[in-house]
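ok so for the tutorial part 2 we go from a plain amino acid sequence to predicted structure tokens. step 1 is just haveing the sequence, like this:
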Amino acid sequence: MQIEQITMFDTMQDPAEDWFTRSFREQIRKGNGFSGSKIRIYAAAILKDRDRLADFLQQEYYVGGHSIPDGFMDYDSRGIVIRHWETHEKRKWPWHRVRDEVLRQIRTGEYLTAEEYERFQQICAANGGNIPQPRSRMKYE
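step 2 — the prediction. this is what the tokens look like for a chain of 141 residues:
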């Protein structure tokens, strides 16, 4: 029989960090709000190297922001910032960290919904089975 020792420190988590991480992941999973953005980002993740993908994400998100549950999300040339309204705290994710989260979600199958993946397949089929080169914030077909 194997015994595992658990301490109080193993179960303590920073609630603010949990909220920030959860909010960040949820917002990345939703995309930037532009029509077809997640499919363009998915294609870029397949076609581009890591550095070029981070640049693509910066161009795709561009500058803006929107409300999220209990906070606000801003994005600009430096990355994404999420602010919590109640605590007035904020966390920043530079574009290379955003890229890493996008790639993690793609790897785990969390990024595209079944409908979005089907649409991606249709776009590829219409392009002779090839993935067309995505251009940020442009119609992707």
